[in-house]
Amino acid sequence: xxxxxxxxxxxxxxxxxxxxxxxxxxxxxxxxxxxxxxxxxxxxxxxxxxxxxxxxxxxxxxxxxxxxxxxxxxxxxxxxxxxxxxxxxxxxxxxxxxxxxxxxxxxxxxxxxxxxxxxxxxxxxxxxxxxxxxxxxxxxxxxxxxxxxxxxxxxxxxxxxxxxxxxxxxxxxxxxxxxxxxxxxxxxxxxxxxxxxxxxxxxxxxxxxxxxxxxxxxxxxxxxxxxxxxxxxxxxxxxxxxxxxxxxxxxxxxxxxxxxxxxxxxxxxxxxxxxxxxxxxxxxxxxxxxxxxxxxxxxxxxxxxxxxxxxxxxxxxxxxxxxxxxxxxxxxxxxxxxxxxxxxxxxxxxxxxxxxxxxxxxxxxxxxxxxxxxxxxxxxxxxxxxxxxxxxxxxxxxxxxxxxxxxxxxxxxxxxxxxxxxxxxxxxxxxxxxxxxxxxxxxxxxxxxxxxxxxxxxxxxxxxxxxxxxxxxxxxxxxxxxxxxxxxxxxxxxxxxxxxxxxxxxxxxxxxxxxxxxxxxxxxxxxxxxxxxxxxxxxxxxxxxxxxxxxxxxxxxxxxxxxxxxxxxxxxxxxxxxxxxxxxxxxxxxxxxxxxxxxxxxxxxxxxxxxxxxxxxxxxxxxxxxxxxxxxxxxxxxxxxxxxxxxxxxxxxxxxxxxxxxxxxxxxxxxxxxxxxxxxxxxxxxxxxxxxxxxxxxxxxxxxxxxxxxxxxxxxxxxxxxxxxx
Length: 726
Fold this sequence. Notes:
Oligomer: single chain
Radius of gyration: 29 Å
Strand content: 15-25%
Number of strands: 23
Helix content: 40-55%
Number of helices: 27
Strand order of the largest sheet: 1-7-6-5-2-3-4-8
Distance between the termini: 69 Å
C-alpha cells in the first residue's frame, strides 16, 4: 500500500476550483488505515457512495471514529441499535458481503443502512454524539492516517453528507495540513489532532460527548423520531432536556474534574497565550490592590482577561490555604450563558444564578456552605443584575468572607445607579469591565444632574487602571479594520417643524429651571426628549434610503449583516401616520428587496435566540434586525456588516455597536459600517439644526478617525456641507 506522501495534495481545496470528493477525499482515503472525523451533519448514504474509497480501511482492519453534532435519522439509529444487539450475526456477514461490495462496480447506494450496521457490528466504525449546553456542535475536522505513520489533517466547511461531498449546494472549502510538513502541521494540524482526542474522550470543557448507544442519546433519538424538521434541531427543543443536560454535566464534572480553575493549553483550536495588552491590564489591576476598571475595547478579550486574572488569584490564595468565591455579574441572560461557556475552557463550572430561583438557589446554598466549611476551595456564581439585587441572592452571599471573594462586573457601567451600587458585595478583589465605563457629559438629560453613576463606579471599583482602545486593537490585529460609509437622511418639512418645536420646549425647560429641575420639569423633559429621539429614529427618508441601499447590495455580500433599527413606534405627526413599529417597517423594506432576515429582540425567548444565531452564522438567513439587545456583550463575531439606522446620543451605544462588527473571524478581512446620519432639511444655521448636526458629527468624527476609507468620507462630507473635525 502506498503512502499518503505519494499523493500530490494542495493546501486548500474549494468548490468551483476543485472537486472535493475526487480530488481530495477519494485519493487520501484510499491510503488510509484509520480515519477520525468530527462533523455537524452525517448521513449513512455517504458510506455507500464512498465505499471504494473506504476499502483501504476495511481491508486493513482499520477503524473509523466519527463524532456528530446533529442526531441521526430514525432508520440510521435503528440500524445501529440492531448492530449493537446482534454483533456476531452481522460480523459474519462482513466477509461474505462487504468485500464483495468493495470489489464490485455495482451500485450499493440502497445498502447504506445495512453497510452502517455491518461497520458498527464488526468494530470498524464507532460513532459518538457531541452536544453543547447552548447551540449545536458544528466543528468539521478530519484526520487520515496511513500504515507508515503519516497523517493528513483537514478542516473546513463540508459535512459528511452527499450534499457536502458531491452536490455542493453551498460553497465549501477545506484546509489541508500534512505531517511531513512539520512547520505547518505543528502550528495547525496537531492542534486539530489533539483536539479530536480530547473531544472523543469527553475532555473538552465546553462540549460533552456520549456514545450513540447511551441512555442520553436514546432520549435525543426519541425527539428525532417525532421531529418533522431535523434541520432546525436544538437540544433545547426537547422536553425536559435541561434537567438531563444538568444531570449529565454533574456526572461528567464528578468524573473528570473537581472544578479546579486552570489555564488551558488550547483555546478555540489555538495554543492559548495571554496577549500583551491583557498582561499589562492585569499587572496594573494587581498593583492597584486588586481593584479597578479595565477599559478595554469591545472584542479585545475582556472576558478572557478577567477569567485568567481570577485563575491567578485562586492560585495565589490556594498557596496560602485559602479559597476563592468568584462572582460574575452581567446585564443579560444571553451574556451569562456566554460567560458559562468561556469559564468551562478554564476548568470552571459555574452556578447559573438566573431564571426561577428554585433552579439555582438550593445548589448555591449547598456550595457556599461547603465552601465556608473549607470542604471546597473554589466556587463560581454567574448572576444577572436583576438576580444580584434580589433578597435571596444578597442573603446567600452575605455569609462569604470578603477576603475570599472576587467580584467581576461585566458591562460595569450598569452598576452606577444608587440602587444597585449599594448592593455590590464588599469583596477584597474587584474588577469592572467596560469599553465605555462612563456616560458622555454631553448627554442632554444626564448632563443636567450630578454624575452620580460615575462617582458610584469609582467609589466601588476604583479608578480606570488600564485602557486599550479600538485603535490599539485594530493596530495589533486583534480587531478587524473597517470601511465607513455615510448615508445622509434629511428631515422633511413636517419633521423639521416638529423637531424645532420639541427642541424649543426642551431648551425652555432647561433655561427656566436654572439648573434646579422640579419633578414636573424632569417628567416633561423626559417626554419631550423621548419624542424627539423617536422622531429622529423614524425619519421617513430613512426607509427610502434603506430601500436604495439594500437593493444595491448584491446577494453575494448580504450574509452576516446586522441592522440596528429605532425603538418603538414612529413619532406620529398626524392621525394617519403608520402605527407599526420601526423595526417592522425596516424588516418589511428588506423583505421587499429580497433579503432573508429575522428580528432579534428581547421579545423572543432564549431558545429562539440560539436558533436564530445559528441560522445567522450558517447563512440560512442574511441578516438580523435588532434594536438594543445586541448592544452589550452578545458575541456575533461572524458579522461582517453593520447598518446603523438609529443611534442614541450616548457614545457608549455606537462604540459598542462598532466593536461588535469588528471582532475577528476566519476569512473576515474587513468589516463594513453604514451609518444613517440625520440632517435638517434646509437651513443648517438654526440653533436646533446646529445642535443636531453637532451631535451627529460627534459620532461621524469618532467613526471616521479609524476608518480605512477616511479620505473618501471626508470628500462626501464636504459635498453635503459638513466638515470633518480633526
